[in-house]
Amino acid sequence: MSEIRDLTVRTVEIQDFSFRFQKPEESSEAVIRSLEEVGLIQPIVIRERRAETGISYQLIDGFVRFAFAQRTGLSEIPCRVLPWAAPDEAVFRILLQNHDSWLQPNVPRRIRFILFALGAGFSRDLVREHLPRLGFAARDEVLAKCEKVGGLPLPVFSFCEEKNFSFKQCFQFTQQPVELLNEVFAWRDRVTLTASLLEEFIVNLKDYFRASGLRIDDFVKDKEFSELMNSDVPPLEKTGRLRQLILRRRFPILTSVNSRLEALQTGMGLPGNISVEWDRTLERREVKLSIRVREPEEWPKALAELRRPEVGNGLENILAEL
Amino acid sequence: MYRIRTASICKSQLESEQARRVREYFGAVDTVDEPPLVSDYAEGKTILHISEKRGQALNPCASMNEEYVCCGVHVLKSVSNCPFDCSYCVLQDYLTNAAIQVVADTQGMIAEIRSRTAREPWRFFRIGTWVLGDSLAFEPLTRSASELVLEFSKLRNCVLELKTKSNHVDSLLDLPHGGRTVLAWSLNPEHVIATEEHRTANLDRRLAALRKSVQAGYPVALHFDPMLVFAGWEDAYENLVHDVFAAVPSERIAWISIGSLRFNPEMKKGIELRFPDSPITAAEMVLGGDGKLRYVKPLRVALYSHLYRAIRKYGGSDPFVYLCMERRDVWKKVLGLELKNIGHHDFEITASLDRRFPGLVHQKPEMQLYESLQY
């Protein structure tokens, strides 16, 4: 690293862009604004390669500045030049440092950087050693998991990045069928999807399909589903209804028994200030009665309600079902 | 027969019968101070270690839970992991060291049992060796169960239960067991055995072994656990019960347990990864109060009731039937029994054994004592 030099280099001599780390355009907007206001002051970082055919340069840091120079017709650009023998680790550190502020707040971005580094030719050992800088444990299995996450369909990965999902949340999508992932993600403009809701939808649908032998194509043709998704119901309410629909399909026995229990509850004819609750998973055999009283005279009325034979019979029937 | 890649023997067990037989079977075998530590469950099934007894080997069943009633059995950790590979096996999520370990220190285990059973001389202990593995899977190789059968024939207030999905009983048939060992089979329809209970003996072989055991004078036990839901489960389980009672007279059956699929939620993904073709995790399940996923209660009640009716139809009213790890309200719905607590359950089994197998239980069981047991 002692041979680092500051030079002005002709832009046409910089032709190797293998260290270009693609980021969304908006992340460069501030840099571009600054360049437009004050011009190009800070040198870009390049690595010099000497061959019999001449000298060429590999761009390491300063892709936005380089693009600005090209766009504004600059034929030369200030550069900090590393020798070709500069160790990969040094180059990797420069890249990491350069992108650090963009990477740190977002796990999928860090995964994206790891995949970029592997793709750019850095050794797995080197990338693994630097995983702690990116918030991960320095283990091969973490690298392998990052590669799996990187293999997610692009809309899914982008959504994970947009929502800043955790590593665990991103990874669990890799264990789901791709066609199911693609379909559920395609609903995101109509329903409100969070990481936990996404996981719930996908896991329940997957299990429903495995249990029933149906496929996602069958589900989207389901009349109830298509009517709901094409309705004008606001997204949040639509999400809740979709969740209920999926749960009904996934848990047909629970749905059917709870419907019977609700009918029994209705048959008890209780006023609004008395409620009957039971464990909707049907595991615990118990009924909870709640009475809301705001005025003293409501109490004897509530007791009279509870003494009605319909209420006793209803409770007996609910307990028998449980 | 076994897929063992490497075998080792603990230095302190070099003189054991198990060590001698393992050396004979594998030739050169490593001698080590500590068991090999294996984190990968599948890899563990290829590594056999003849072990010393480490710490307490006898414990109450690990499934004790107030909501889901246990039968009060004690478990002897004489084997850990097993060569079979059932898709639903809880060991996938339980073992911290997946290497197969067979404890060769039979005398050490028996001394612990003597000491424990002596502390409650009025009590009759059922002691099973199946909690961390199959009781007989390695019997042709190690003869560990044979040693236990001989030792239990000399004990007073306990009975040994060897539970298996194998047919490895030949070495036990001529032993002077004194009726103090119950040979038990985990049973499921052939469809379940073929699709979920990998590398185990098929139903015909299990039933043939059951027949031989009865002929050799052993009391036997049946465990229809875990029952699974699949297309045609009703006929499959009824046929299974029919075939079992055609093979074994009900008066030789010490007890019958019924249970259904259950596992920790963390295991779900593991099962799906290891057995992607298995549909068992797609069933309609809920999280129980004991932290385990199990079929929704109406389905469990339907499964158990169907099986229980078949047992009474083909096996009569004699064999003692209980539910494994079930709620009291399910007991009442299926068996018509109001169970007070685990001690009550323990008492009912013991009283049934006392009535049906004269001489097995050392003294008449007293309900009050059993019900006062703290679990």
Question: In summary, what is this structure?
Answer:
Chain A is α/β, with parallel strands linked by helices and 322 residues long. Chain A is built from 16 helices and 7 strands. Chain B has 13 helices and 20 strands.
**Main beta sheet of chain B: strand number and arrangement?**
8 strands, mixed
Mean pLDDT reading of chain B? 95
The helicity of chain A comes to 40-55%
How many helical stretches of chain A? Answer: 16
Annotation, overall tally of beta strands of chain B: 20
Compressed to H and E, one letter per element, the order of chain A equals: EEHEEHEHHHHHHHHHHHHEEHH
Percent helix of chain B, as a range, is 25-40%
Given the helix and strand composition of chain B, which structural class is it? alpha/beta
Strand runs of chain A, count: 7
- Report the C-alpha radius of gyration of chain B, rounded: 20 Å
Poorly predicted sequence stretches spanning 5 or more consecutive residues of chain B? none
Cα-atom radius of gyration of chain A: 31 Å
Largest interface: A-B, 18 and 18 residues
Arrangement of strands in the largest sheet of chain A: 1-5-3-4-2
- Which assembly state applies to the chains in this document? heterodimer
Strand and helix layout:
The complex is a heterodimer of chains A (322) and B (375).
Chain A: E1 5-10, E2 14-16, H1 29-38, E3 44-51, E4 54-61, H2 63-71, E5 76-83, H3 88-103, H4 107-119, H5 124-129, H6 140-150, H7 154-163, H8 167-174, H9 178-186, H10 195-212, H11 216-221, H12 223-229, H13 235-250, H14 252-267, E6 274-278, E7 287-291, H15 298-306, H16 309-321
Parallel strand pairs in A: 2-4, 3-5
Antiparallel strand pairs in A: 1-5, 3-4, 6-7
Helix pairs in contact in A: 3-4, 4-6, 6-8, 9-10, 10-13, 12-13, 14-16
Chain B: E1 6-10, H1 17-26, E2 30-32, H2 41-44, E3 47-51, E4 58-60, E5 68-69, E6 74-76, E7 79-80, E8 85-86, E9 100-103, H3 106-119, E10 125-128, H4 139-142, H5 144-152, E11 158-164, E12 181-186, H6 190-196, E13 197-198, H7 203-215, E14 220-227, H8 233-247, E15 253-260, E16 262-263, H9 265-274, E17 285-287, E18 293-295, H10 297-315, E19 321-323, E20 326-327, H11 328-335, H12 342-356, H13 367-371
Parallel strand pairs in B: 1-2, 1-3, 3-9, 6-10, 10-11, 11-12, 12-14, 14-15, 15-19
Antiparallel strand pairs in B: 4-6, 5-20, 7-9, 8-13, 16-18, 17-18
